[in-house]
Amino acid sequence: xxxxxxIYLDHNATxxxxxxxxxxxxxxxxxxWANPSSGYRFARRAREAVQLARSQVAALIGAEADEIVxxxxxTESSHAxxxxxxxxxxxxRHLVTCTTEHDATLRPYDEFAARGYDVSxxxxxxxxxxxxxxxxxxxxxxxTALVSLMWANNETGLIHPIDQAAAMAHERxxxxxxxAVQAVGKVPIDFSQSRVHxxxxxxxxxxxxxxxxVLYVKNTARFQASQLGGGQEAGRRSGTENTAGIVGMGAAAxxxxxxxxxxxxxxxxxxxxxxxxxxxxxxxxxxxxxRLSNTSHLSFDQCDAAGLLILLDEAxxxxxxxxxxxxxxxxxxxxxxxxxxxxxxxxxSLRISFSRLNTMEEAVAAxxxxxxxxxxxxxxxxxxxxxxxxxxxx
Length: 394
Ligand code: PLP
Prior knowledge:
13% strand; alpha/beta; 12 helices; binds pyridoxal-5'-phosphate; three-stranded antiparallel sheet; seven-stranded mixed sheet; 12 strands
């Protein structure tokens, strides 16, 4: 049980289990521990539960149940997609991605670059967007093995035009993968209407447990497995199924598909308006018209993010500086550098990310705690107060 006084605003890093997910998982960690692939009746319940989870996840993203491949998480799913595209097209030596992708995409791309692949990494503008004309220009029909473009950015919440980008790749006979880890459950997704061939999802970002994920593989797309063995998941991902994790992911997807009591966007907006009204020298980073409704990426003039995080932690508010993977490293994240955010501003930025498990009271209390933390830090550091940056949502 988390500290009841904790205000948790770091849902892009990880999310608490949905109570429904835990209830659905429990029997598969206690009385029904069967291997879902076994032939006896005792295993049938586990097998049926995995199948139910497959349809629950499919329903959330407009997919068919047999397009869902359970994996261990977002990183494995992206690796599987990248390796599949490379294996399917041994003659194609070109890959496309974007500079603000998660390391789960950038690091395997680095590996292929080291092996002699030609990698086009699209730059982004100051708001984190790619230029669609530049994107079109880098596509090389017959040579590009894969485009990988994230649906939503984990730090700024920026949403790329994935359906448009996927259609452009598809028209040119190029496989298209999206890292949809931060998008699923936050933006409407209907893969039946899109040209996306592969998509990565992660359980722990959507109120399911850690250690489970999904690779969506479009029925009309070819896929070559890289994890070989017992042939589970229709031969697309070998390894004994993580029954409880999969069941939790299905239940969390079903829970997300139902209407939320309080709009996450309303909480984020209330928090941001209060911060902007009460604290001077604040900048909202990213493309305000195309960002996740749960994410707020803010910079505070003359404040060190590390200091702010300590003061917020003392006040019972958990959020992060840049992405969680950067915490502890004293340098701006690659996302902020790619957007051209000056180093001082980058080092003074926080990512605050809500979920439907938050309340409006928490949003208001967190804004107040943040105001006190900024005031204290500026006082302690003896810094002056910067100018108010006018924020006009588009
Ligand atoms: N992609 C994005 C955008 C993420 O935010 C994360 C997690 O931080 C991942 C991939 C990796 O997912 P997982 O932790 O399930 O491997």
